[in-house]
Amino acid sequence: MARRLATEQGLDLAAVAASKPGTGMGGMLCAADLAGVKPGAAIGAAFPSGAASRDLPISPARAALGRRLTESQRTVPHYYLTTDIEVDELFELRDQINTRLTKSAASKEEAENAKVTLNDIIMKAVAATCLKVPDCNSSWQGDFIRQ
């Protein structure tokens, strides 16, 4: 239901979710969470002014390391590794969430639109990790690190 309402109102659902936690199960956004949100307002709210970012100074040794890593990223051929992981319990969690969402839906249409994907769960985990471990959410800016 929230996804449909966001589409109808021209809202960026991801920006709304980033700006405030949802009141639904597991922090998911509900239709009530979208009340009063204006199109475009949610987009700016994702990064409020004075957001908690900080610029960290770097030592000369770290600067040299950063330059070399950046250079190697551009010049050294890349290779990729893949592996299989068992996500059976994650699929079970997704199915449980979707079952609860379907049961709590107010209408048939809302029940059809209430769906959590595996990608949704992974993105939530990544976002929570970035909040708990700011080093994972840092970027090299040349002469400082933005965190």
Automatic annotation (TrEMBL):
InterPro entries associated with the record? 2-oxoacid_DH_actylTfrase (IPR001078), CAT-like_dom_sf (IPR023213), E2/Pdx1 (IPR045257), E3-bd_dom_sf (IPR036625), PSBD (IPR004167)
Residue span, Peripheral subunit-binding (PSBD) domain: 2-33
- Could you state a single Gene Ontology molecular function term? dihydrolipoyllysine-residue acetyltransferase activity
- Where does the 2-oxoacid dehydrogenase acyltransferase catalytic domain start and stop, copy by copy? 53-144
Question: What does the entry give for GO biological process?
Answer: pyruvate decarboxylation to acetyl-CoA
Gene Ontology cellular-component terms for this entry are: pyruvate dehydrogenase complex
Q: Which residues cross the membrane?
A: none
Q: Give the family from UniProt.
A: Belongs to the 2-oxoacid dehydrogenase family.
The name under which this protein is listed is 2-oxoacid dehydrogenase acyltransferase catalytic domain-containing protein
Q: Which organism is it from?
A: Echinostoma caproni
Q: What is the lineage of its organism?
A: Eukaryota, Metazoa, Spiralia, Lophotrochozoa, Platyhelminthes
